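Trying the structure run again after the queue cleared.
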Amino acid sequence: MILLSGLLLILWGEPGRCLEEGGSFTFHGDFRHFAVATNTVYIATEERLYQLSHDLTLIQSLTQRGILKVGPESGDEQFYRVSETDEWNATFGVNILLPFVENNAVISCGVIKCGYCELLDLQNISNVLYREHIQVGPAGRSNASVGFLVDVEKTRTRPETYILTALQQPDKTTETSCLSETASVNLHNTNNKQTGEIFSITGENTKPVIIHEGEVEFVDGFQKNLIIYLFSNVPSEDKGNKVRLIWLKGRTSKAETLRSLRGATLSISDGGKGSRLVASSVIPGGPPVLWSGVFSVDGGQTDTELVVFDVSPDLTGAADADPDFCITCPEKSRSTPKPLKPKAMLIRQNYMTSVLAVRQKTWMVFFIGTGDGQLIKLAVDKNYHTTCPRVLYRASDDRQVFPKILLDQVDHKHVYVPFPNQIKRLPVSKCSTYTNVQDCWSAQDPYCVWCGSKRSCTFEDECRDSDWLSIPDDSRQRKMVSYSVVKDSTGQITLSIQTHLTVGQSALSNFACQFSASSSQLCSAASSPPRFPQCTCVLKKSTLPAEGLRVTVKIRLGMTQLLERFKISNCSDIRGPPTPVLCRQCIEAGCGWSTNGCSWANQGVGDESVCRMMESGMNFSRPEISSITPSVVSFYGRNHALLSGRNLGGVTRVRIQADLDCTARESPVWNNTGVNLTFHIPSAENKGMVKVCVLLSDGSCHGNTTIAYRSAPSCTAVTPSSTWVSGKRKITLMGFHMEFVEGVIHSHAPQDVRLPSNSSYQNLIYDTPAAGNTPGIFTSTLSLKVANETLACSTNITYYPDPEFNSFTSTKTRDSVLINIQKKADKLEITTTELLVWGVCEKKQYPCIIKTKQTSNETDFFCEIQRAPDATFHQLMIMYGDKTKELTKESSLYLYLLMLLAILLVPCIIVVVVIVYRSKQKKLAAKMNKFMEDLELDIRNDIRQGFVDMQTEKADLMENVGAIPFLDYKHFASRIFFPQNESFMTLCIKDIGQDAVKVQLDGCCQSLSRLIQDQLFLTSMVHALEEQKSFNIQDKSTLASLLTVALHNNLLYLTEVMETLLRDLMQQSSNAQPKLLLRRTESIVEKLLTNWMSICLYGFLRESVGQHLFLMVSALTQQTAKGPVDCVTEKALYTLSEDWLLWQAQDFSFLKLKVLFAVGSDGEVSEPLEVKALSCDTIEQVKEKILSTFKAKFGFPFSSPIRDVCVEYEKDGLFVPLEEVDASSEVIGDVTMLNTLKHYKVPDGATIKVLSKKTHPPLSPQGSLKDDENFAGKYFHLIDPDVDEDQRKNPERKKLKLKEVHLTKLLSTKVAVHSYVENLFRSIWGTPYSRVPHAVKYFFDFLDAQADSMKIADPDVLHIWKTNSLPLRFWVNILKNPQFVFDIEKTPQLDGCLSVIAQAFMDSFSLSETQLGKHAPTNKLLYAKDIPKFKQEVKAYYKQIREQSPLTDSEFKDFLLDESKKHENEFNDAAALRELYKFIKRYFTEIQEKLDQNGAPDDLKEQLNHVKNLFDGLKSCSWN
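Done. Tokens:
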């Protein structure tokens, strides 16, 4: 019940190859049958019947479970289906599944207790049209029975359709209470108008059937031109097997049809003994009637052949005279059936299980399924010559393809391939993967043509005009263009060019050739004009140069150009001993080979086969291969394989070639000793046997052995699942095909490939690598190294600290010593087999044999030293992995001495402490008196300076800030949606190049998208998740934003869902505290509301508010820069926030610097630029101010980023480098002060030169100190470190600073930026054109309506709802985070200022009157006088919204549609849907339960299961 859409990447496990196959569908329960009818696929499993669209999208499913109720009369039974959660006592097992298109029905027959049939609606299988307890088809599950619809022509205008069933009869010893009239071959009615009514086998006054005495296995059957063909395996008299064909002629009646029985025997070898039919397919077209069958040569599954027969019916013999099948068996003599010989054996391949034959032009194309999970395509020409097989699909495991493969009847470009619990829809060709005309032709694919107008390889129907070219009708051609050189009796030489192509009419009418040579004009006027497919050139000269003549031929076919270059030679000049090498040289020159050597093409054979015949006839010491180790590998190949044999000294390469002369792969050799050599076995496209030979330098290949390619290894478990950090613990990996693994890799040490010490099919043993530099306890993921591939393993290893052995005790017995080792408790689960112990006595080691533990105690280990000396053991050596630890007994006398020494020292230490304390106390009292005097003076000075600053502050901030750096919509929205998750932020938006492209969602995402478009599902899911305690606030916000992205293109639906969820939330809150509604983001809908407001108000934000917001932020930044900013803590002297006030700042002065910019590398400089700085600025801050001034002055940023800029100060005619930290930096304790301009004694008006590190590398390169993780701990700037250090060198630091003295700086900053704040606030609650934004009016009206419906009379509640929904949920978020709107960086001190402004903004919407006193927070006091004025403006704003005429539904709908279209395709819907599914999967059961509670229909629950199975199946796809 799982729909798996076409996969993108792959994916998982098997590296598979999915160009986007077209989809797949995974289901629960074993596969039984499937059928295709026009545009629908029907699948019957043990548990359900599925109806799918042609692209395998689920349409309908029907459970096969139910209740079988027995009536009062015998045989009166009724079957009633039940839901999956209800109890059931019967299952309907389908054995016959036949879509009957003409009757618009699906015939489904099988067994419940006895026979049972249903007639289902073709368009909707849940609609049961008719049901009956009757036996049609086998009485149990059988792979040896077939059923299909046949037509019997009663009159020429009125055929009757019947169900033909060919059944393997049950064993006569099997007892059954079920009555059945069926025989081996039966004809059942399909409607009630036929004699005997529906499903009956009754004919006109008879019940005609065909009987077979004994066992029979029916394999396949079909009808063509009223002739019915039945294929079966029948035991022969010699205990072998024979393959039988039955012909029946569908004429007149059931009885006459069955009486027309005639038969034949199919033989693929002499007598056909032992061969067995596995699967078959009729080949479309004819006459003659061609049929293909997969035969097992040895009667098993390993050795199989695909064979073609002409099965045209022979109706000349006597009817009903077959020895194996009969109607009136005892009455007639039996004749020997006609033997049929195969037309051709096409391919021999292990484990072939199914076949589908299709006609494509003059070609036959076979799709072959295998028992190890492959789909192979084989194209065969009209002469039964095959092309190279192509693997269309390869599973990583060994799952079998079932015996039936069907074609997609809609596009005829896909086939349906069934597996045990999955069906795949795979493309018949991958034309688009071939990028040029040569590759398109070389693929030898009848489906593919090179389209000249599109310049791509496509299907023929996709090339709109007839300007295409394709492969010829003959598969024996190995080159697209060939040539030959002919010399006639007059000595005239003719060069002939032959194109081996099939072309469209447009290409055919534009066929031309152009010959050219480097020396002179090549062709004479006597050359005949080109005529497809040939061009000829009669050479002007009758002789060719001794070195040959290089020729270029340009061939035009429509819009396609072909270019061929080759060298022609005088054929008679190619001389030498007649060797295969000379033969190939002759053929490649366009000449012919004869018994006398090389000759002109018209005098010899121009085929390389003659050269191969020469090789076979030569007699010399040929190389021989005796073995290859390993000879069985995975399809990824194997590195360092060993080939052994004789006469290998001249071998240069190893050739590996599959059947049917496919393109061979060659691997170089090394370590060649003449009897052994090493080579790499390359990867393979398919599984199976390949031939191996060794190549000599002359190109000949010798030896004949095989290599078997199998499935890839996969791991399922690991034991033990932990190891110690020092490594070398023996680990056992369990899985499948583990013998193919060449190494194991741990994720923490990817370069350390651990070689297996032992491996088999299911197990592999290796030792773990050490933890290396990875600290603490951690988990390392395992990967398998197979040839050149690294495969992910589903298991992990946890690293714990090495085991700690604490102590040991020893007990002397008669002739041995028993030792008990105590180990610290851990999670390593060490076993006794992993430890080796030796006792050490007098420098000799005695092995201690570990005893098997009788208990689960993990902290005690016991071992025994046998034949131990009389002395006592004081030391043990313990080995685990490759590490050895020594364990020593501690002496008790040593412990006593330590305790005695400690007792004597304690009184002495107490006396010393008392003396030192009294001395320090006297010195401290004197120092405090002096300190208080200095403090009083400093405070007076600070208060006076603060008063002066406040009275002289001017609002002289610069308003010309240049272009406003607005972010585009998608980046604005993504930062609002995912403010704390940058990975989601990046994931859910598209790159610039993708913005204008609408990307089709894959099947998984399409299904999920359809599911969330159902409001009942979406609201049920939201409520189900919110009820879970593990679903935290962060999860709620993420889910809301993912839903916003996924539904962004349908804002109307998103608005409806939001309204529904808000109503539900209001109902929850109405009984408790309605004023708290929307105050915090504690539900999904609250975050959804924030996102909705952001989408709908983006236009208003950008057009009306954005400029004022940016001016305010710029004003704050400029005001902050007027005073000191601590580089380490980011605190500033000029700020609005008391928390970010730099009240510890020392004295500073203003400086004006003349800045020069180095131009080039020759010492040239620019005109000076005046930059304002402070004496307390660090060098990094100076750089920032220089670059900021440069950008403000010139309107564009400096060419080098700040990291690549260094500065120098001109002192005494020389430039001195200025660095953050150097040898002169002041150090207090372990903390270093950052260098400032004051440290370098840079005066006012000093000259600073700016250089780029790229062109002027500094003498001592230094990166940014802020990259240091412990930057704040190693360095300080204006705030002294908390260390006890003598600071007499800088008496300024001795001054005590009080925060309260500097609070006036907050007020001066507020005065400087107040006008910008007022303008910003009024732009927000202003109403341009006397109308508020549509979203605000619509949502406030919605809140009014809800308050009315809930009968809330308190106006304060409604005011609070509106305030929480708009100012609190949207505007405060924007005010505090301008980086959401602009491409700017928000510094910590800016963040503090914005928080104060945002608080003032929200206070303006408050209904309560706050009484402020001297203990009130400063951020409240700053705007205390402004808040009442703002509140009056807010009340007027709310009143204007309320009085504005309401929006009509059409107005708001148009608004939402416009917003959706404006930003269409800017978000990655697929990524959001995949992340959304992770939540669905985590709480899948809870969502199902909620749907049940809400009375969701079964279709909706089925759709949810379908989506789950689709995504789950995606993880196991092995197609890439």
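The CA atoms of residues 158 and 382 lie 36 Å apart. Worth checking whether this holds up in the mutant runs.
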